Amino acid sequence: MFEVIAFYTFSILTIVMFGIVVFSKNALYAMSTLAGGMIFIAGFFFLLEAEFLGVVQIIVYSGAIMALYAFGMMFFDTTRDVKENIHYKKVLYSLSIISAILIVIILSAPIYSANIEAFYPSVMEGVGNTQMVGLVLFTKYLVPFELAAIMLLVAMISGILLVSKRMDMNLTEEDHDEVEGEIV
Amino acid sequence: MITLTHYLVLSGILFSIGLVGVMKRKNLLMLFFSTEILLNAVNIGFAAVSHYYGDLTGQIFAFFIIAVAASEVAVGLGLLVLWYKKTGSTDLDTLNMMKG
Question: Within a domain: residue B49?
Fold first, then answer.
């Protein structure tokens, strides 16, 4: 009973939040509702007994990614409404049809895949979810895990290099040589 | 009783919202938001399948998706800030330097 109430509450909240993200004209509203929707999605993960995934969702999405967006939005003018001129109505309509077909396919998928068997069973006596994730991640998925680490490192370096082009200068001595160091 | 189909329907609805957002939005920042919605919808589907089939692979792939999303935001926002410094707008229609 608790599960049913929680599922419907979280799903209604998530759909409303993401609807606001997609249809709002204000970038600030879109960002804050997106952060809210991420936290409600973490609620789903806790319902599905994936506690570690839920915690990671809250830390990474609502913490790091939203902070990054908030930092990026300081560069843009966010108080003004976002102007968008849409000239392709046909694309929107065909997109809606594609989405409807997609939902039907997703609905019918479990019927055809009813005889799937688990490779790495998640239920083991005396072992929690976090420990089990660690066991699988560091044995079967070790190479993808390391590749993901390298990818994150590359992304971090590229993010730093793209935004701050004046890394060779000392931040505290910036007032003296403001003019000569200008690189665009 | 909540079954796998409930979660997959929810995942499909959220994915459709994100898809409509990707096609509707002309602002690049809003386009990034819609991409995050897409990735999160897929994550819900993975976690649900992982729970109902008793297999941890779904959760592991959800972790990898989160890692991909984090690096996408880092690189994408860096490029977006550069583009905004150069042209003064984040509109998708200004990205036509090659006049294609």
Answer: yes
Q: Is A84 in contact with B26 (Cβ distance < 8 A)?
A: yes
Per residue in B82-95, pLDDT (tens digit) is 888 888 777 777 77
Both tokens of B36, joined, read 């995050």
What pTM was computed for the model?
0.82
Task: Write out residues 121-180 of A within 8 Å (CB-CB) of B.
Answer: 121-123, 132-133, 136-137, 141, 144, 148, 151-152, 154-156, 158-159, 161-163
Please indicate whether, in this complex, the C-beta atoms of B21 and A123 are within 8 angstroms of each other.
no
Q: What is the token pair recorded at A59?
A: 């830390």
- CATH number for the domain including B31? 1.10.287.3510
In a domain, B66, yes or no: yes
**A98, two tokens:** 């594609």
Position with higher pLDDT, A49 vs A164: A49
DSSP state for residue B94 in the 8-state scheme: G
Report how far apart, in Å, the C-alpha atoms of B65 and of each of A92, A128, A183, B75, B88 are: 27, 22, 36, 15, 32
Q: Are B45 and B11 in contact (CB under 8 A)?
A: yes
ipTM of the complex: 0.89
- State how many domains chain B has: 1
pLDDT in tens, A59-98: 988 888 888 888 877 777 666 666 666 667 777 778 778 8
Question: Contacts of residue B60 in chain A, CB cutoff 8 Å?
Answer: 133, 136-137, 141
Residue B72 covered by a domain = yes
Q: Report the percentage of chain A scoring pLDDT > 90.
A: 28
**Interval A3-14 mean pLDDT:** 92
Residues 42-81 of A with CB under 8 A from B: 44-45, 48-50, 52-53, 56-57, 60-61, 64-65, 68-69, 71-73, 75-76
